[in-house]
Design goal:
heterodimer; A: 215 residues; mainly alpha; 78% helix; globular; B: 62 residues; 0% strand
Chain lengths: 215, 62
């Protein structure tokens, strides 16, 4: 099953690259550098998804004290941090040629950095507390609190004056992008979602084996 | 506007390196733990001790 998920994920990523570089046209204003969008936007989508899963799994853990929910929250937070880091790095690389700067303390960039640091703290907290049950309980509370930062990140471009553009897809009202660009973006969304599922499945299994080894 | 292909290559290259490194970390760690699990199981069978449950060391705390 996991091999199948891995194979489908790889095929999805290849399809995403073909759509992003072969099918989607060169953007008129930014030129080919806009193709970073097919990596940057799906990365932040995976980060949102991952932290949403942390929220749900943490609530389930606090109610049922289920090891599986704890492992899912831990795995999802780690993958979420990975993709948030990628979002920040690829955004910075995209920002230099389009905005003329690698970094600016804009509302979107600042809020996503806070999100990154909060979940990095979540992972550090888990590593610092020796009593596994206590660490899981504290992490679950932090996982729930930190998830409230996700809407703040997403809507920051509406709530404050920012350099960052408004959301490309996840926004109210009709889209303004050509259908072919939306299609390329959606294929990459699907591929990155599969990659998230693949990574979380593997990481949760590793966490299960680690718990077994400690028992 | 110039195409800035070097920035596109940098972004995709960085993502590829990070994602492949994380995948390799997961594969290696899983293999290590699987191997250790087999050794533990064999040792338990030799000594005749029962298999512990995962998470059995967890005790509820106030």
């Amino acid at each position: 099953m996991r091999r199948l998920l891995g194979g489908v994920t790889l095929a999805g990523l290849v399809a995403g690259l073909v759509m992003g570089f072969g099918i989607a046209p060169r953007e008129a204003t930014q030129g080919n550098v806009q193709r970073i969008m097919y990596l940057h936007v799906p990365s932040v989508w995976v980060a949102y998804l991952a932290f949403g899963v942390v929220l749900v799994a943490s609530v389930v853990y606090l109610i049922r004290r289920s090891d599986a929910a704890d492992q899912l929250a831990h795995a999802s937070a780690e993958v979420g941090v990975l993709f948030t880091g990628l979002t920040i790095a690829t955004g910075s690389i995209w920002g230099k040629p389009t905005w003329g700067t690698w970094w600016t303390w804009d509302a979107r960039l600042t809020s996503v950095s806070i999100l990154f640091v909060m979940y990095l703290g979540y992972l550090l907290l888990r590593g610092m507390i020796e009593d596994r049950e206590r660490g899981a309980r504290f992490a679950a509370v932090l996982g729930i609190v930190a998830a409230f930062n996700v809407p703040l990140v997403h809507f920051s471009v509406y709530w404050w004056r920012t350099l960052h553009q408004p959301p490309s897809l996840m926004k109210p009202g009709p889209g303004t992008m050509p259908a072919i660009i939306i299609a390329a973006l959606l294929v990459n969304f699907a591929a990155f979602t599969l990659l998230y599922a693949y990574f979380v499945t593997r990481r949760a299994r590793v966490l299960g084996l680690e718990a077994e080894a400690e028992a | 506007m110039a195409d800035n292909w070097s920035f596109v290559i940098a972004a995709y290259g960085l993502a590829a390196v990070v994602l492949v490194a994380y995948w390799r970390f997961l594969v290696r760690r899983e293999k290590e733990l699987d191997d250790a699990s087999v050794v533990r199981r064999e040792m338990r069978q030799e000594t005749g001790r029962p298999e512990p449950q995962a998470g059995a060391s967890r005790s509820p705390s106030p």
